[in-house]
């Protein structure tokens, strides 16, 4: 009997948001041999919040996992952009229109809730998806059959070589597959040091039970952004309003510039308080709730855009090919969009030859690349605007905020701007892949 796409052997490197979505999307399409190799012992418990935008929810809903994630999330009905030093409101933007306009509300959640929702979805397909945790993938070779070395850490098992029909490199911002692919293709596309880093903080409701102002924020439905020169803080409730999540951005002074340096580190609380020393008393109070030793700092890095995400039967997915600054809150959403599209293009393969697999992966790239890089640039531009210091550019930005308040013009915080939201939330990339596969495959 002729081989169908569903018979193909697929390896997924990395069980982050991109890898889990690819696995689930392919299982839903009936793929029978999906192996996920993850360096970590488990999904990990990354203590941070994440925005669950409608374009992400749409993919998750199609895959049958949105309801469980939504049940633990918080419905966001407005956002407020404020001056960090004075807490003066620059813009108040209602977001309750989003649900009706884009079919899903704008929500915020816990990263572990999102990852676990996807993982639980995968576990419903035990005959199709196999997870290999604590297993590092290395030495990827690209060809009609691609292969790599899998090295399990916790078992006496030796390293072994894995050969597959399709290899999806969802191995994150430090992707070694990306490095190898670029070397092979003689493409120079470096890692860009954004000179920014982020503290990620979670405050539990019981910590602030005697603080009515913070209790109101935790119990509320608002995303707040406090901005200042070269810095800002974005904050919102998650986990059914039991946790208040703060994510900061500030100049990076603590990480070595080396590409392979660790991207996260335990931060120093007093250094964090110093960075935001001129922000208003309420922000100071929030930062002070963080227990000593629980400050986590992330280096923010991005890559230069790549001319291609695909070589032979290998495709880069998620942060491996389009890492972004977090200012548009779209990194994971974009990795999840990738996964939805991968599910479509591989299931629509007209045959299972390596040439067709390559072409189908190129269709994925065509549907996703321009959009992903547009959003990467938009996030960077939004950061530049939010972080302006005194001068003509800031005066112009604040004039735009004032115009927005009187109903004339866009809000300078791109994330909150209705036209940007239409472009980000109103596009269904899975549907585009479904509608345009034949045409794009023919020209790939
Ligand atoms: C401060 C901050 C705030 C953010 N806020 C948001 C937000 O609000 N909304 C949003 O949508 N996004 C947000 N993001 C972005 C989002 O977290 C990432 O874009 C997203 O997690 C990328 O998913 P991924 O699957 O591509 O990579 P990852 O989630 O990084 O997963 C990669 C996986 O691959 C594994 N791996 C790596 N190498 C190997 C190997 N050799 N072998 C086996 N396994 C390997 C890793 O262990 C990891 O589990 C934020 C990011 C930051 C830094």
From TrEMBL:
<keyword id="KW-0560">Oxidoreductase</keyword>
<dbReference type="Pfam" id="PF01494">
    <property type="entry name" value="FAD_binding_3"/>
</dbReference>
<keyword id="KW-0503">Monooxygenase</keyword>
<comment type="similarity">
    <text>Belongs to the paxM FAD-dependent monooxygenase family.</text>
</comment>
<dbReference type="InterPro" id="IPR050493">
    <property type="entry name" value="FAD-dep_Monooxygenase_BioMet"/>
</dbReference>
<dbReference type="GO" id="GO:0071949">
    <property type="term" value="F:FAD binding"/>
</dbReference>
<keyword id="KW-0274">FAD</keyword>
<feature type="domain" description="FAD-binding">
    <location>
        <begin position="8"/>
        <end position="377"/>
    </location>
</feature>
<dbReference type="InterPro" id="IPR002938">
    <property type="entry name" value="FAD-bd"/>
</dbReference>
<keyword id="KW-0285">Flavoprotein</keyword>
<protein>
    <recommendedName>
        <fullName>FAD-binding domain-containing protein</fullName>
    </recommendedName>
</protein>
<dbReference type="InterPro" id="IPR036188">
    <property type="entry name" value="FAD/NAD-bd_sf"/>
</dbReference>
<dbReference type="GO" id="GO:0004497">
    <property type="term" value="F:monooxygenase activity"/>
</dbReference>
């Amino acid at each position: 009997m002729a081989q169908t796409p569903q018979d193909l052997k697929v390896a997924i490197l990395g069980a982050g948001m991109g890898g889990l979505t690819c696995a689930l999307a392919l299982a839903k399409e009936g793929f029978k041999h999906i192996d996920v190799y993850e360096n970590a012992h488990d999904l990990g418990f990354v203590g941070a919040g994440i925005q669950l935008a409608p374009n992400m929810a749409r993919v998750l809903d199609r895959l049958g996992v949105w309801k469980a994630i939504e049940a633990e999330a918080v419905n966001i009905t407005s956002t407020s952009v404020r001056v960090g030093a004075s807490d003066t409101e620059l813009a108040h933007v209602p977001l309750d229109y989003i649900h009706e306009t884009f079919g899903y509300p704008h929500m915020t959640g816990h990263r572990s809730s999102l990852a676990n929702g996807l993982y639980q979805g995968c576990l419903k397909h035990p005959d199709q998806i196999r997870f290999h945790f604590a297993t590092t993938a290395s030495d990827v070779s690209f060809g009609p059959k691609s292969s790599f070395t899998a090295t399990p850490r916790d078992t006496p098992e030796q390293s072994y070589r894995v050969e597959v029909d399709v290899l999806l490199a969802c191995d994150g911002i430090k992707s070694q597959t990306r490095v190898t692919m670029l070397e092979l293709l003689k493409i120079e596309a470096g890692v860009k040091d954004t000179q920014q880093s982020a503290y990620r903080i979670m405050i539990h409701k019981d910590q602030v039970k005697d603080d009515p102002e913070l209790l109101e924020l935790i119990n509320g439905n608002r995303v707040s952004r406090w901005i200042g020169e070269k810095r800002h803080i974005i904050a919102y409730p998650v986990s059914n309003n039991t946790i208040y999540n703060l994510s900061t951005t500030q100049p990076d002074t603590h990480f070595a510039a080396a590409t392979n340096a660790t991207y996260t580190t335990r931060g120093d609380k007093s250094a964090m308080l110093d960075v935001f020393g001129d922000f208003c008393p309420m922000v100071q109070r929030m930062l002070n709730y963080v227990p000593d030793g629980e400050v986590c700092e992330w280096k923010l890095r991005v890559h230069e855009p790549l001319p291609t995400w695909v070589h032979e039967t290998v495709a880069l997915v998620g942060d491996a090919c389009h890492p972004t600054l977090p200012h548009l809150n779209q990194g994971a959403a974009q990795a999840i969009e990738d996964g939805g599209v991968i599910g479509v293009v591989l299931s629509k393969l007209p045959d299972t030859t390596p040439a067709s697999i390559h072409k189908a992966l190129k269709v994925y790239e065509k549907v996703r690349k321009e959009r992903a890089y547009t959003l990467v640039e938009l996030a960077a531009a939004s950061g530049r605007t939010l972080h302006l210091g005194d001068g003509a550019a800031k005066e112009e930005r604040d004039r735009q905020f004032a115009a927005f308040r009187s109903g004339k013009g866009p809000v300078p915080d791109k994330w909150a701007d209705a036209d940007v939201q239409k472009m980000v939330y109103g596009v269904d990339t899975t549907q585009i892949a479904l509608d345009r596969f034949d045409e794009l495959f023919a020209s790939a």
